[in-house]
Write a structure and sequence with these properties.
328 residues, alpha/beta, Rossmann fold, five-stranded parallel β-sheet, four-stranded parallel β-sheet, 13 helices, globular
Amino acid sequence: MDKMISRFPEQLEEALQLAENARISKHTAAIRTVLICGLGGSGIGGNFVQDLTSAECKVPILVNKGYLAPHWANKHTLAICSSYSGNTEETLQVFDQLVGTGAKIVCVTSGGQLLERAKKHGFDYVQVPGGWSSPRACLGYSIVAQLAVLHGAKLIKGRIFRQLDVARKLLVKDQADIQKRAQKLAGFLAEKTPVLYCADHIEAVAVRWRQQINENAKMLCWHHIVPEMNHNELVGWRLNRPDLAVVWLRNRNDNPRTAVRMNINKEIIEHFTHTSIEVFSKGKSLPEQVMYLVHLGDWVSFFLAQARGVDPVEIKVIDFLKSELAKV
């Protein structure tokens, strides 16, 4: 896992080259909605695409993480089906439901049944490199490939790819410092349950941290966003909870009112737990800031796994679940 995490900047570079060569055919009808379908390590890419393009994309984006395609999917929908393995049960079922809707379907995968079905129906696809043992380590491929689909559909401009390349260079330059910072953060979190808070426009970052801590470190964790948590979860902080460690994921250019809220939230919550840590991103653009926090969080999850003496690659309980599902 440490080798896969360390290759993230290199993976971004490969993905950006892949995006340059991606060719998306023109759809017969105007695109009015985007539907991104995927789960786990493949699905989180859709969350990042949603966050990174919300200020630019010309149409709304919905991320679907289940078995059912929304009833509104039609010829005006761009549907991106993302599965690294190409064999994700839920994504394949949604793909089959979308086939008859007239939607513009594009698949992002390394192979498997999804690629076979895309070829069978003559749909566009972006094939990412295979051979990675953990799909969750392929986030760079997932994000950039999906952005390439949006760009090919003329829903976003190409500037974001240049920003991602700047982010890649930042990660290379700061690699040693990122790992040192991650080790320190893992030390704070090792014996506690992490609670992650961030601004609403970068929720995908908190989701990524939570999922990586779940899978790599084998720990429970939860997250919420500001300002929404100010209308509910904040009231739940009422008793002393020394077993909880709060991490505030922040950008220095977050919405000013959100930043004020987070400062006040931090003051309130520190009455109930002494482990409260602010983690500020680096970089000027949103893609830089997001990729920095993602890479830092991935290393945190790895060092947490080391501290807990667990294998960050192993996911036996998910394998068991899949084997039991196959019997039904």
